[in-house]
Amino acid sequence: MKRLLILGAGTAGTMAANKLRRRLHPDEWRLSVVDQSETHFYQPGYLFIPFGRYRPDEVSRPSRRLLRDDVDLIHGEIALVEPDHNRVLLTDGRALAYDYLVIATGTTPRPDQTPGMADGRLWRSSVFDFYTYDGAVALASALGDFRGGRMVVHVVDMPIKCPVAPLEFTFLADAYFRECGIRDDVELVYVTPLPGAFTKPIASHRLGSMLEERKIVLETDFMVESVDPDTKTLVSYDEREIPFDLLVTVPLNMGADYVAKSGLGNELNYVAVDKHTMLSKQFPNIFAIGDANDLPASKAGSVAHFSVEVFADNFVRYVGGKPMLRRFDGHANCFVESGAGKGLLIDFNYDTEPLPGRYPLPWLGPCRLLAESPVNHWGKLAFRWIYWHVLLPGLPVPLPSHLTMAGKHPEE
User: Fold this and answer.
1) What tens digit of pLDDT does each residue of 355-397 get?
2) Beta strand pairing call for 365-369 and 357-361
3) Which residues 6+ apart lie within 8 Å of 189 measured at CB?
4) Alpha-carbon distance 114 to 71, whole Å?
5) What is the pLDDT of residues 173-198, one digit of tens each?
6) How far is 285 from 279, CA to CA, in rounded Å?
């Protein structure tokens, strides 16, 4: 009996387990998933909790219910991977042997990596995040009490999970304050380490224009050095200072600490892999999928979805002694909430930046690329049902895992 061990029951780990369980014969393969949490969170829903659009209980479900019955779920904290012994050690002393290992423990925000950010005088009182369940719930309470002043939305550094989410939060905050009738009493500032609003030039221009239309100040190339708890100020390495009354930050994102301790990660604890197959560059029986690897792509749920489609097909061939034929192209497809019941859609990969056009059907859409529309907003909301009932169970989605140029208009 061969043993496949998947570390992490998040989006990528759950999808991979359910897809591979259907294709690896149970008499030949034992498939186990390890996770320290018994709860699976719908992370795209965190964005809506601060604005009261989702209740906290709408973004979580027990992990066990999301995995097939013939997949073992092991609750435990991972201490170390010993690749030379094909073994994973848990902090309670258990040792789990494997023939093939899939690392899918994702990335997490680390406010402790920026001096002053996690100071007890500010954290969750004047400084908040919304990339965690607890952070999103705490921020909902803070926004309800906020009556005016300077609110700064801030990104420490790239890469981060869902790179459009800070912009979405800013657009939604603008709309929220207008609905509350206090927009004129709030100064909104968007602070980014990038030279523009986004990573790709065309999208950066479009999203930057949307910030300007909403009278949101854009501060670029800001590499934060520290947060001053006494003056409630962001301080950059080039000595710029940005004071705030309320700071909504995206802390430095890092992979799991056990990855570094096991000698498998880069400086941010991400596993180095082949960008087309997700196979480790160090060990021939280890893959890293989802946000846990160093792919030069967005750390987004859509990337996890498209890459797991490719990974599952390749894995079955690989363990059967056949060459991996499919190549992941970095495909990302992300809705961008812009407030007031509208949103954008961007579709891109390693080589092609987001372009205007229609998706998924050329000329028909109904979704519009790089343009605001109510359809895009409803597509974002509908995705929650698709996530629970189609994506996580590993069912087929009628969209190509690779990017297509059909419907895109580079000349616009």
Assistant:
1) 999 999 987 889 999 999 999 999 999 999 999 999 999 998 8
2) antiparallel
3) 150, 151, 152, 153, 216, 217, 219, 242, 244
4) 39
5) 999 999 999 999 999 999 999 999 99
6) 8
> CA–CA separation, 207 vs 36, rounded Å?
38
Instruction: Tell me the pLDDT tens digit for each residue of 17-55.
Output: 999 999 999 999 999 999 999 999 999 999 999 999 999
- 375, with CB counted inside 10 A (0-12, 13-18, 19+), is middle
Quick check: 151 and 245 in contact, CB under 8 A? yes
Least Cα distance to 6 among 37, 29, 33 occurs for: 33
The amino acid sitting at 82 is E
**CB 94: neighbour CB atoms within 10 A?**
12
Nearest to 300 by CA among 47, 35, 20, 31: 47
Supply the angle between the helices 165-180 and 201-213 in degrees, to the nearest 10. 10
pTM listed for this prediction: 0.95
Q: Alpha-carbon distance 278 to 294, whole Å? A: 9
**Length reported for the chain:** 412
